[in-house]
Structure formats: structure tokens, C-alpha cells
């Protein structure tokens, strides 16, 4: 997803993470999303898909 501006990708990813973790500070979720963007494999995905992929191990524990 190199065509999407970095700040928009991070914001969209953080928004998807917020859907999972309602009580976490949005600024912390932006930091997590920024870390995800630094991962080349995740950065190649749309931001919502990257968040879902990153959350898979957590959701599998439920």
C-alpha cells in the first residue's frame, strides 16, 4: 500500500485497532499502527487488513 500516504495508513490502521480495543488511548494505538507500518509485509496490505492480520494471534486465544 505504498500509494496511500503514511499518515492516512497509520490513522486507518489505528481506527481498526480501536474497534478491537475500545479502552486503549487512541494515541497509543497510533503508535502501534506506526510500528505495524514499519513491518514491510504488513505495510504492503491495506491498513485494515494489516490490523486484522496482526490481531489474529490475539483473537485466536478467545
Q: What level of helicity do the residues show?
A: over 70%
CA gyration radius, whole angstroms: 11 Å
The description of the largest β-sheet is: none
Structural class: mainly alpha
How much β-strand is present in the residues?
Answer: under 5%
How far is it from the N-terminal to the C-terminal residue, by CA? 30 Å
Number of strands: 0
Reading the helices and strands in chain order gives HHHH
> Tally the helices: what do you get?
4
Low-confidence stretches: none
The count of domains is 1
Shape: globular
The overall pLDDT average reads 94
Name the quaternary structure: single chain
Please, could you describe this protein's structure?
With 62 residues, the protein is mainly alpha-helical. It has one domain. 74% of the residues lie in helices and 0% in strands. It has helices spanning 6-20, 26-38, 40-43, 47-60. α1 (6-20) crosses α2 (26-38). The protein is globular and about 35 Å long. The mean pLDDT is 94.
Name a few traits of the molecule.
single chain, 62 residues, mainly alpha
Write the layout of secondary structure elements.
Layout: H1 6-20, H2 26-38, H3 40-43, H4 47-60
Helix pairs in contact: 1-2, 1-4
Summarize this entry quickly.
With 62 residues, this protein is mainly alpha-helical. The chain contains 4 helices and no strands.
